[in-house]
Design a protein that fits this description.
By secondary structure, this protein is mainly beta. It folds into two domains: 1-13 and 63-238, no CATH class; 242-261 and 271-292, no CATH class. The chain is 14% helix and 36% strand. It has a five-stranded mixed barrel with strand order 6-7-8-10-9. Strands 3-14-11 form a three-stranded mixed beta sheet, covered by helices on one side. The structure holds zinc ion (ZN). The site of zinc ion has 8 residues, from loops. Zinc ion (ZN) is lined by residues 250, 252-253, 257, 274, 276-277, 281.
Amino acid sequence: MRLLLALLASAVALTAQTTAFGTKVTEATPAAPAAAPAAPAAGTATTPGTKAAAKATEDEVDNSVVITPFRSLTPPEAKTSRTFQLSKVNKLGFTETSKELQRLYSAFATQRIVDGSPSGSSKATGYLATVNYTLVQDLGDNRFLAKAAWPASGPNEVLAAGADTMAILLLDKPAKVGDSGRITGMHVGTVALLFTANFPPLTGKRLTLRREAFVECATLEDTPAGLQKFVESVNAGAEMTVTTNEQVTCKKCGGLGFTREAQKGQLLDKRVPCAECASSGKVIVSVETKFAP
Ligand SMILES: [Zn+2]
């Protein structure tokens, strides 16, 4: 994961010029074109149209790409924890059921990414989302600027949904501009991308964009065989946890949806709607479930 992020954040070219472009802070604000006195790069297409685009092609175009972390993701944090004991599954008097085990394993499978570690997987440190994309610009090293869409994920939708949103993707395999596809992506936070746009209407403009970044990854298989392997590894002593959003009884009102308030000179208490649960009696909290043999 750290390696992937490092790759994503690495500069593509060692020839990157030292410029003041990195000081731009306004989103999508075009920076001044490169002021290098060198001759125009051979083979650079001249785009008729805006003055800025024409000027950019006159000067040496700085095509270096710099990606730096801008806002790291908020790590998943569980509010409460509980234990799920495999030995109690489907036993009378216990809440552990095979249906609940399947549900938790399905969540577990989507929170683990398959990698080269001895266990065959490691816990994802970002939120996983299914990302639909169309590639807009190749940033080198399998990194792309893409028009993307993904559903909200994480407790309280920490990662907001994207719809027709520009994002930075690090793909597994080479791809080309215009390709559309769908990946399971691990959200790695927001990155600042300094690059020269080559799509209209920004062609030739040196920009800094701050966008959500995703790393393509594979998750554990949610299959009966995968579940069997999971159960075996927990029974063999592996420490496994899964974080899920659960609906629980509101603590403040005890599930009633209101609290009582004594009123002077009145026999009946006043009922005050519970703000904690919006009078529903239930709240959704993120729960970390630890698995035990
Ligand atoms: Zn309540």
